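Dear Dr. H.,

I hope your travels went smoothly. While you were away I took the liberty of generating a structure for the chain from your last submission, since the lab meeting agenda had it listed for discussion. I wanted you to have the full record in hand beforehand rather than looking at slides cold. The sequence, exactly as received, is reproduced here:
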Amino acid sequence: MPKINVLSKHVAELIAAGEVVERPASVVKELMENSIDAGATSITLEIRNGGVTYIRITDNGCGIEHDDVPKAFISHATSKIADENDLNSIFTLGFRGEALASIAAVSRTEILTRAENEQTGTSYAVEGGVETRFEQAGCPQGTTIIVRDLFFNTPARMKFLKRDVSEANAVAEIVDRIALSNPGVSIRFIREGKQALITPGDGKTLSAIYSVFGRAFADSLVEVNYELEGIRVEGYVCKPAFSRPSRSMQYFFLNGRYFKSRSCMASMENAYKNSIMVGKFPSCVLNIVIAPNFVDVNVHPAKTEVRFSDERRVTSAVYYAVKSAIEASDTPVVMNIARVAEKTRAASSQLLLAVEDEPVSVIKPQTAVPVQKPVQSKPDVTLPVKEAPVAQRKKDFRTNISSSEYKAAVSSPKSESPVAQSKQEPDLIASFKAKNQPPKPSQPASRPAPGEYTPPSHSFVPVRTEQELSEAAPKPLRLLGEAFKTYIICEYDNKVYFIDKHAAHERVIYNKIKKAAENKVSSQVLLSPVTVTLNKNDYNTVLENLDVFSKAGYLVEDFGTGVVIVRECPMLISGDDIEDTVVEIASYLVQNRTNVESEKIDRIHHTSACKAAIKAGYKNSTAEMKVLAEQVLYDDEIRYCPHGRPVLIEMSRYDLEKQFGRIQ
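The corresponding predicted structure, in token form, is as follows:
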């Protein structure tokens, strides 16, 4: 049997430190919570190199008396509780007495503090868990703690730290949570010598939200103030029209402590049922106030999970609080007439139809040797090349019909039936054959004058037979109608097809975006760049993947703590969809950090295409539906959407007649 050894104090401290101190953000969380428990109304935090080399926290709390300073750095020494009965009524954020001892065991820590009833303060220093200085010093009331060289004596732990920017953003996320849960405390955050955040400390939650997330996010919120069976829910939730594509902006607090609860998230989202779109999630900053004896906060090392004695009461209080707030305070979205007029598009443009006069053929023409006409010029004379007009040179990669054909289809009477439209289809085949007829023999050119240069003439063009032209021409497609404003029904090649217009359009756009990215086609520069507000985790992930966004056609730049700005995007993306696209992509990148770059780029293309595609329930014209059906049926690659759902379902004439008993 292995021999049981009693670990030394140093090893035991390192084990405890590993549970409490995971990264600089863990140090900041523990020390700022101690400042709040000390009654501080003003806290200043400064970090350098992401907090790895320097962390300083200054508060105006009650301070620590001279004789108690060394005790504070002993493991399980705390002023928050005295016996086991106090565990049932914990009002403070900290209570285990492990923070200072664990931090001092893996860093060089200094503390300067003075209590209210003392004339002089105390200066105390610990290096790797060993006391190096303990003396009196002059200082104001409160406490200042400086942590240097984190993990200097545990180099293996240093390898697990991320870049300084990532660690600094993790610290910023902790600061945001503390600022939101303690609006009565003025918090100042200095990052690499620059002020990144300051809250007024006026006791108003909305002021703290404004300082952390900005004006746009604060203006989208409604107030929550509700009480049910002794449980009070207060804070703010977003209006249904301002829901987001991820849950990253949901913040729940319990008696001022940040915690995670799937049941509370589900209750809040149930309150929004039938008010927001599927796939959208509300944002919130909610504080649940409950008697401490009804909750156990000592169930998780980081104290982010709690256990309720009656969870149903808590979830019911959250549901009715949110439901009452959005029913009483939600107002309709105000239309901005100027913005709408600026972004108004031509009628029936949801499917991105042609805007050029030159038609784009669906069938790829066979390669032929071009005919070069004689040029009467000397070989040493360089003639200027006259470029074709922009409207002729710029091919529209959005469609396969010309604007003239589209205008003719749109201007046709609405009462025209699909049967009448199908009568015009042979004309398209005839025009296709006419374009492929061999050129008529031209008159022989006169012989050039002596001394003039005549380039060789290649007038041979492959001649297609009538059968080849018939096989190359697209078969006529007959549009039958639309079901539930979602599925296009058409007849093609003796079969009936049901096409999911959202999935089909999504795949068409995805193919075009991917091809444009592979060919390095320039993106569109936005006239008004779009700012996107993110939580610090998503924000950090976006900054780490700026090159991935660039290769996918987006120009994303850092616009300050928690905010990025989008200056360019793929051609097919609307400006109104950019914010949701970036938020959804950021959420995906957070959950799939280890994916290879090609998978990340492909997912960005998926999300962009999904946001740009028309949605089920949209009303489309007959011409639009026919164009989309032709794009799907004439391209064998369009059979599944980027997410794997089928684009179309076919039913042959044989199967249909068999269902009706015409064929036995």
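Two observations you may find useful: DSSP finds 23 helices and 22 strands in the chain. The first helix runs from residue 9 to 20.

With kind regards,
E. W.
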